[in-house]
Amino acid sequence: MSRQTSVRILENTTMHLLDNPIWSALTTQLAHFAQTEERARRFPPQVTALAAVADETPESYASLDRLLSEAPAGLFLHRLPEFPPQWSLIRTLPLWQMVFEDGRTVAPRHAFTPLEKNDAREMLALAELTKPGPFGLRTHELGNYLGVREQGKLIAMAGERLRVPGFAEISAVCTHPDHLGHGYATSLIAELVQRIHTRGEIPLLHVAEENERAIALYERLGFRKRHRFQLAVIQRAKNSAAA
Fold it and tell me: Mind listing the domains of the chain with CATH numbers?
């Protein structure tokens, strides 16, 4: 896909789907995963902690309240509101949404193996060690996940998470701390970009604003910053019951 083609798609009216990407995914390509209320959606916690509201209004938060349990939920918000008193705000973190628009092709330099159900616990262990973002035992069900192994041990991985019409999110990009500096992340992203383009979709990703090293890598690979979100990780207080 050329740079001009990518930019034209980004200017298309469907781009608003990325303004609320979790909601968009749970109402389109990934709707079969959704736990639903009128104005709220969430993934089953073992798939991922992500959840969303139709808009940032008290009515939508009331819908989400009926979906919450003691399991944390992660929201991508435009601003941090005053949350309902029965919620605890566990963490907040500024995120950049980055969209691939350059069209450059980077040849992967490493061999990959598909990661599936039998790899779930090893994938979760790597994610818990490196903390790339919300990850669960069933996250691999959301899309294609690829890994790099050394002597049979999983040392790096990346895959696809959110899917909306025309776009696919690259996520869980992580490398074991003992194996940094070998270009595994670059190769994994390059391979996923090629696969996503082959399907006629545009890659995107989300990255912590404070992770300057990762942002620099993504920019070198052809991604650009599109929108700044606030990640809010919330949880219903243990002594609260849903309304």
Answer: 3-94+230-236 (3.40.630.30), 98-227 (3.40.630.30)
